[in-house]
Amino acid sequence: MSLKLPLPPGFFQCPPLSPDDNARYLEIAKQSVQDLVAKARIRDGPVKWTMLSNECDLKIYKGEGTGTTANSDIHCAAMETVGQLDEVMRLYRTDTTAQAKEYVQRFGRALVDAITLYTILPRHPDRPNNCIQIKWMVAKSPFDGLVTKRDFCLLEVHPIT
């Protein structure tokens, strides 16, 4: 059976997470952020980065020996822009399903739909940019029509303080 996308609000009826599950996802999120920050260090990190491109304000690097298979690579891009952190955070905010769907429309050429399933760590006035959520998304292939759309769940972490 094929579902019509985007899915309607309330499509997923998720059971509540136990406190143990919530704590486990919180720990996974914290470790993931630490791993990402370490791997993204261009110098003195666990990944040896080689610059592939340096055009205008955009620098693109390739990581050596870090892919999940022998034929895969990781890449890192760095760019400086003028703006306030709050502006950037608003642009990428996907706390609610409505915001996630707006994000898909704004940026997601490959994304078809997105729904927030769980909020592990909600935003708080003391840490307005911190949020951890579990999301469901659907992505399409560049060969849409030949390759089936794929759905997946992810643990999304916004740890900026």
Shape, principal axes of CA atoms: globular
Number of E-type strands:
6
Strand content: 25-35%
Share in helix: 25-40%
Low-confidence runs = none
Strand order in the sheet with the most strands: 1-2-3
SSE string, helices as H and strands as E: HEEEHHEEE
Report the C-alpha radius of gyration, rounded. Answer: 18 Å
Mean pLDDT: 88
The largest sheet, given as strand count, sense and whether it forms a barrel, is:
3 strands, antiparallel
Which class best fits the helix and strand makeup?
alpha+beta
Number of domains: 2
For the record, give the distance between the C-alpha atoms at the N and C termini, rounded to a whole number.
Answer: 44 Å
Secondary structure tally, helices:
3
Any key phrases for this structure?
globular; three-stranded antiparallel sheet; alpha+beta; 2 domains; Rab4/Rab5_effector; 161 residues; single chain
Structural account:
The protein is α+β, with helices and mostly antiparallel strands and 161 residues long. It folds into 2 domains: 20-80, no CATH class; 83-161, no CATH class. The chain is 25% helix and 32% strand. It is built from 3 helices and 6 strands. The protein has helices at 19-40, 85-92, 97-107; strands spanning 48-55, 58-64, 74-79, 111-121, 130-139, 150-159. Strands 1-2-3 form a 3-stranded antiparallel sheet, with no helix packed on it. A 3-stranded antiparallel sheet has the order 4-5-6. The protein is globular and about 45 Å long. The termini are far apart. The model has no long low-confidence stretch (mean pLDDT 88). This is START domain-containing protein. InterPro entries: Rab4/Rab5_effector.
